[in-house]
């Protein structure tokens, strides 16, 4: 019975082991390849498109702010909207081109933005051409502001819709089936029958050949456990890095650009309110409403109206906003941050500059409120200086300082995103080692079985 059944079992065991070795290579390679494909699609196209759209909004909002400030200060009559205005438009156009390269499906929406941008720049040119005629200049500048800031149809609204669409693409990649926990765990399934086969074969050989240990099968068992552990650790590392990139680093980066957009819009709105101000009436503008997303999440109940939308001592971590774009941008940089890396100090400085920015708006409105019934805000030098002046206590200087802080935080967020993406996109050499290790597993298993098979081939 032994001379007939044992050789057949040994040959079938060898065949089964070869099949296990193939599956140990094929299944993880397939799953890891699909997962890395989803990660690459997000990293190379969807996530950059989100950032590009956020950049477009920030550059255009700043261009509008700078142009409006030039009309308020009167410098537009001498030099036009200015070099910063031209630089912002150029940067926005470059970001639009990058966004088009990252997502061909968004071409229609991008064309809408480009068409509106042409209309906007034309209106600014008309306002510049009529700078000496207050009524016409004010009208054209107001039309341009509407094209830029209209809630549903303006350029910034279209850019926000584009960014939301690109974020949906990131979310789809984030929830790709290849990255599902069940799929990631399932790729280790071939290791279970392989281990069972090794253990049962070792016991069979021990009983039938009186050898307690088989070096080849023992080495194969150790290598199988090591390969399974490496694969599981790599899958977990990639999943965590990709989750960090999508759920933390990318939102922080886009929050930085969106914060720059909101602060530029708020400052530009105040400047436009001064330029269009009517004698004897309170200064208009939606400063508090515009800045609300910085300190309050969408859908959160609105606080009682105040001139400054972030009450409390924002210079301290205890008074830092717990919601909104600033909370996203500064997450982890105040509580528990290492003082040595400068992040906490930078975050605290940003909050201080944000407080100065809101205080500058309050000071502007207070100054405008002291004007007589016959004085327009745009004709009062002190009001104009409070709106567009470069000092730290004036709105123009305050928004410049705050934008520099936000730009620095955005740079840090970009570095964090790049680090998370690099981790998620690297398999630490597993894709190259996997076929070699599986071939070694097959060889070790056959090396442990073949001498026993040869015993039955030898003449007796």
UniProtKB/TrEMBL annotation:
Residues 294-322 are annotated as: Disordered. Keywords: Membrane, Transmembrane, Transmembrane helix. It comes from the Bacteria. The keyword Transmembrane applies. The chain crosses the membrane at residues 178-201, 213-233. This is Secreted protein.
């Amino acid at each position: 019975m032994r001379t007939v059944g044992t050789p057949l079992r040994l040959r079938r065991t060898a065949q089964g082991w070869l099949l296990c070795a193939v599956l140990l290579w094929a299944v993880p390679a397939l799953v890891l390849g699909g997962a890395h494909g989803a990660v690459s699609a997000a990293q190379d196209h969807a996530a950059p498109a989100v950032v590009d759209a956020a950049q477009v909004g920030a550059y255009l909002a700043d261009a509008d702010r700078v142009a409006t400030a030039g009309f308020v200060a009167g410098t537009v009559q001498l030099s036009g909207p200015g070099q910063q205005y031209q630089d912002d438009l150029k940067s926005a156009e470059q970001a639009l081109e990058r966004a088009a390269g990252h997502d061909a499906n968004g071409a229609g929406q991008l064309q809408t933005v480009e068409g509106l941008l042409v209309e906007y720049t034309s209106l600014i040119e008309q306002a510049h051409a009529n700078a000496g005629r207050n009524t016409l200049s004010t009208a054209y500048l107001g039309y341009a502001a509407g094209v830029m800031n209209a809630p549903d149809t303006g350029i910034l609204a279209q850019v926000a819709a584009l960014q939301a669409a690109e974020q949906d693409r990131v979310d789809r990649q984030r929830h790709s089936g290849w990255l599902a926990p069940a799929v990631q765990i399932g790729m280790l399934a071939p290791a279970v029958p392989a281990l069972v086969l090794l253990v049962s074969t070792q016991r069979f050989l021990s009983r039938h050949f009186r050898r307690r240990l088989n070096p080849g099968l023992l080495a194969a068992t150790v290598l199988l456990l090591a390969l399974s552990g490496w694969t599981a650790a790599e899958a977990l590392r990639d999943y965590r890095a990709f989750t960090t990139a999508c759920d933390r680093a990318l939102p922080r980066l886009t929050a930085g650009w969106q914060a720059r957009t909101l602060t530029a819009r708020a400052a530009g709105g105040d400047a436009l309110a001064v330029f269009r101000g009517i004698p004897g009436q309170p200064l208009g503008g939606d400063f508090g409403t515009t800045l609300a997303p910085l300190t309050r999440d969408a859908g959160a109940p609105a606080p009682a109206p105040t001139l400054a939308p972030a009450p409390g001592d924002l210079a301290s971590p205890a008074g830092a906003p717990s919601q909104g774009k600033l909370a996203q941008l500064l997450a982890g940089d105040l509580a528990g941050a290492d003082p040595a890396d400068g992040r906490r100090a930078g975050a605290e400085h940003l909050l201080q500059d944000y407080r100065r920015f809101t205080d500058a708006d309050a000071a502007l409105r207070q100054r405008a409120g002291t004007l007589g019934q016959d004085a327009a805000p745009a004709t009062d030098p002190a009001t104009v200086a409070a709106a567009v002046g470069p000092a730290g206590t004036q709105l123009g200087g305050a928004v410049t300082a705050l934008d520099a802080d936000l730009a620095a935080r955005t740079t840090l967020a970009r570095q964090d995103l790049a680090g998370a993406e690099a981790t998620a996109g690297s398999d630490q050499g597993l894709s190259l080692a996997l076929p070699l290790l599986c071939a070694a597993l097959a060889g070790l298993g056959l090396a442990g079985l073949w001498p026993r098979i040869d015993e039955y081939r030898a003449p007796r």
